[in-house]
Amino acid sequence: MTCINCSTATIEKFCPNCGQRQEVKKLSIKEGWSDFWARIYGFDGMFPRTLRDLTLHPGEASRRYIEGNRIAYYGPVGYFFLMITLLYVVASLLDVDLKEFLKHGSDTGFQQKPKPGSGQDQYMQYMFTLVSDNLKLISFAIIPVQAFCSRYLFFRKSNLNFVENTVLPFYVLGHVYWISIMSLLFYYLTGSFFPYWLQMGISILFFGYAYADLFRYQSRIKAFFKGLAVYLTTQVLFGIIVAIVVIFMILLNPDVLEMLKPSNNR
Q1: For residues 111, 117, 121 and 123, what is the CA-based torsion angle, rounded to 10 degrees?
Q2: 185-193 CB contacts, 8 Å cutoff, 24+ apart
Q3: Is the separation of the CB atoms in 82 and 173 below 8 Å?
Q4: Which helix (H) or strand (E) holds 236?
């Protein structure tokens, strides 16, 4: 028998070269449904195992991938983009405007809200649109900053290089999107927003736990607090980078400067 995908001669049920199933059934609803679940739960339960281990032992899962196990879990970059895509899909299915959701869902209740229709309000609308339209790019841009903080500031003795230090952030940042997805469902069912401070608190603690689970050459408590420091330092550095970008936007775009003028915010 010849594989219909790569033309390799085989007598097995699956091609030993590319994994293509040799006994292909005619397309039908049943066959399409079976293929869908095979891709989700295929490779010996890769997807559910990834969910389980990233929830319970995110550092251990990251370590196994770094050490060369490429079969047990989805790759970190693929999982990261999968979760962001899933957030968009869920928002679309629930008919929730992601821009408005991000805007109202990130309201802590402590910051002063700009006057409706003012320049600052228009600027905030502009920024939330920019974030929602470029969520993948912005989230991706945080990864190297976090890897830098881990590799060169807080876990210098880990013997992991810069690229290896991106594995945990990709996995964990992707995984915490489950909180955003659950928040979307909560908003859809109740009309209320899941408390932003609680989302942030869970995310920060999970990062600390993940780093403590990954780096075992020091005490778990020390690694936990260093993990918190990695997360918080990353947010500060990324905030500085964003501030610099905003300054350039103001200098290059007169409309942005016009929005922020005091005369347009009374």
Answers
A1: -170
A2: 185/90, 185/94, 187/96, 187/101, 187/105, 188/94, 188/96, 193/104, 193/105, 193/107
A3: no
A4: helix 220-252
Greatest pairwise CA separation for the chain in angstroms: 78
Q: Cβ contacts of residue 229 below 8 Å, gap of 6+?
A: 149, 153, 154
pLDDT digits (tens, 9 = 90+) for 43-89: 456 778 889 999 999 999 999 999 988 777 888 998 999 899 998 89
Q: What residues have CB less than 8 Å from 126, skipping those under 6 apart?
A: 256, 259
Q: In 3-state terms, what secondary structure has residue 26?
A: coil
Structure tokens at 32: 């399409």
Nearest to 232 by CA among 198, 210, 204: 204
Task: Quote the pTM value.
Answer: 0.76
